[in-house]
Amino acid sequence: MVHEITDETFEAEVANSSVPCVIEFTAGWCTFCDEMIPVFEELSEKFGDEVKFCIVNTDENKKLRIRFAVAAFPYIVLVADGMQTPLFDELVTAERLEERIRFVLDGGKAPTTRPL
After folding, report:
1. Helix, strand or coil for residue 24?
2. Which candidate, 31, 43, 74, 97, has a CA 20 to 30 Å from the CA of 21?
3. pLDDT tens digits along 73-104
4. Which structural domain range is residue 53 located in?
5. Where are the beta strands (DSSP E) in the chain?
């Protein structure tokens, strides 16, 4: 299941989540963003309760777009333990995204990991 997150639901659904969250920031005009939705659905089923997959429409949720400094679409970030780790700012396959998620969850560090 892919969860839709808003400026109002972010704290409860993501920041306070007991499981890591992978967020895709989208825009209404972004066709690549639409192509990522089946990838998120596939990985959501694969990861089950281990990871929560979320989508944020930046056209409607400008506070989150600013908070995460979204400058490219689709922008994909992992949020876990109060930290945000950018994963991709481009269209990627399910295999590449899964590989990167598992790398970060297994303790791999990205140079741009920073506090929420």
Report:
1. strand
2. 31
3. 999 999 998 899 999 999 999 999 999 999 99
4. 2-115
5. 2-5, 21-26, 52-57, 75-80, 83-88, 114-115
Instruction: Please give the pLDDT value at position 111.
Output: 61
pLDDT digits 0-9 by tens, 11-23: 999 999 999 999 9
**Contact, 46 vs 79, CB < 8 A?**
no
CA–CA separation, 59 and 79 (whole Å): 21
Element (H, E) at 10: helix 10-10
Residues 73 and 26: their CA atoms lie apart, in Å, by: 6
pTM of the model: 0.93
pLDDT (0 to 100) of residue 3: 97
Question: Which CATH number goes with the domain that contains 111?
Answer: 3.40.30.10
Both structure tokens of 106: 């297994």
The tally of domains found in the chain comes to 1
Distance CA 116, CA 98 (A): 22
